[in-house]
Amino acid sequence: WTLLQVQMAVLLDHFISGYEDSKEAHAGKMANRHGRRGRRLAIDPILQSLCSGFDTVEELREHISTLFQVVDRDMQGELSYEELRGGLLKLDCDPPVDLTRAEFAEITDNMGLCNERGRLGKAEFQEVLRVQLQSFAQRQIVDALALADEQCKEKHFTFVCTSMKVVLSAAEELAPPPPALQNKLQRATNGAHPPGL
Q1: What tens digit of pLDDT does each residue of 76-118 get?
Q2: Dihedral (Cα; 129, 131, 137, 141), 10-degree rounding
Q3: N or C: which end of the chain has fewer CB within 10 A?
Q4: d(Cα 136, Cα 8) in Å, to the nearest integer?
């Protein structure tokens, strides 16, 4: 009789563990289906600050330019990975902005948005941060939608977030590639202008 109880307890434990694993796997699939990866970038605190600190595109450009000047410690007008990482670490952010090489590769589109020396000049820095701001905003909208679905179920809030997501997606499809990437594409095709650019 005791052995039967132990076997039942073990089976019940396996069932509960399996159910929880299945539930987590389903949540992960749903998050991926809706564009949520649960993953955040080291630069997210900077992106959050930039998002809440501008009203016009010109103000955003000015804020990004100021950030570039602060991070460009040697004042050479371009940033290597090491200089960018060191400059970001010196910013007063919580948590500290510790950019990894992998994240640098990700935000620069595997160095495709860097200049020919593999560095970020002022224009490339502007482009990288603007692309990352759009990505950050999309992640925030997706997270807000999930929160609305899970907690408040308010139709107006869900409608606004969904509308913003659609607008951002449409803008992304209509926008030409970043100028730095356009230049690289042109050089790669020996000056021939690729279709659609």
Answers
A1: 999 999 999 999 999 988 889 999 999 999 999 999 999 999 9
A2: -160
A3: N
A4: 48
180 within 8 A of 114, measured Cβ to Cβ: yes
Interatomic CA distance for residues 118 and 155, integer angstroms:
47
pTM: 0.63
- DSSP collapsed to 3 states, 39-94: CCCCCHHHHHHHHHCCCCHHHHHHHHHHHHHHHCCCCCCEECHHHHHHHHHCCCCC
Residue in this structure with the two tokens 């052995």, named with its chain if needed:
3
* Three-class SS state of 1: coil
Radius of gyration of the chain measured on its C-alpha atoms: 23
Which residue stretches of 56-192 are H helix? 57-71, 81-89, 101-107, 122-147, 155-174, 179-188
